[in-house]
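Could you join me in thinking about how sequence relates to backbone shape in a protein? We need material for that, and I hope you will provide a protein of your own picking. Label the sequence line and the structure token line clearly, so we can match residues to local backbone shapes. Would you write everything just below, so we can both look at the same thing?
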Amino acid sequence: MNAEPVPEQESGRPRIGEGPAPTGDTSTALAATLRGAMHVAFLVLPVVGAVRAITADGVPAPLAILCAVVLAVIYLLGSQRALRRGDAGRADTTDLLLPSAPWVLALTAAWMATTFVSPSFVWIAFTLFFLVLFALGPVGGPLALALVALWAIVSPVLGRDEALLGVGEILGPLIGAVFSLVAHAVYRRLLRETDRSRVLVTQLRAAQAELADSERRKGVAEERQRLASDIHDSLAQGLNSIVMLSRAAGAVHPSAAEEFSRIERTARENLADARGLVRDLADRAPRTTLEQALREVIARAEALGGPTRWELRVDGTPIELAPEQVETLHRAAQSLIANVQRHAKAQRCVLTLVWWPDRVSLDVVDDGRGFDPSAVGRAADGAATGDAARTSGGARI
């Protein structure tokens, strides 16, 4: 791309995250609903279990009440902190139901002990299904779920003579475990979609803010250039004409030479002011270097996260570029980096800016998987980038 010496522009682009962040209302509301359901369940089920233990199983009332109170106290002591602590590494707006493993294991052990007192406490397993899935991870959670379900099935026969189980005693815990597993998977899927939507909305807002700021700066620069041209072409030229005419008139009319000299001097002073105003308008035009613009692009890419490591290499002695040329290369870098983020799944991406005596080149190379240009369309193939490069006197290779 051929370079022309013109004033450079000043960077005023907003950084990612300066606008309001997405709120994550869906995931937060769902987590609040699950927490509320868990609170209600652990408030109701121990009471129901204690009542049934007293009335149906003949357990002494103090012992049944003690079992219910122990379960409720253990739950209350851990739930207020554990159910709200959030998932490490996620945004604060994603309020996850993520209880701590030690607390859930203690609660499970207490529940298993109560089932020795009365099988009526078995149904508390339905709340434990959710807790072990959220607390023990993708491997430990399902294993613990299976163990809790198995204990819920076999524990009722431990305290009676016959070892036969009813259909309901088997199907109830199994259906509850399967339902919990499906609900947990749906919840996690929703969280992933929420995180993905948050990233996309952040990118969109950053792009909109950057576009608006770019257009504003471009408009300011064009208006200053227009004013400078108008002043130069009209006022400055008119004052210059007055200077020359007053000088010529003074030579023709020596008797009025002093008056014409005063006119010439005043016109010269005003002409100097006009030229100074033109220079001031040009000097106040926004300035930025191409390297600064590219570093901003990389900073925004890094702010979005992801596995890709970004690097900018600069070689050669910088030359002055026209504002539209800086903007073209800046937008080209944005487009190419966006393609890397969307399609390449790269671990590393290097932008190389090389200054030549009469041109500048920008290479973007990554170690990703690439993509089929015909499958993603003209925009992703960079055709628009090539058009912009040709408009600014360059080329896309």
In short: The chain has three domains: 25-202, 217-283, 290-391.
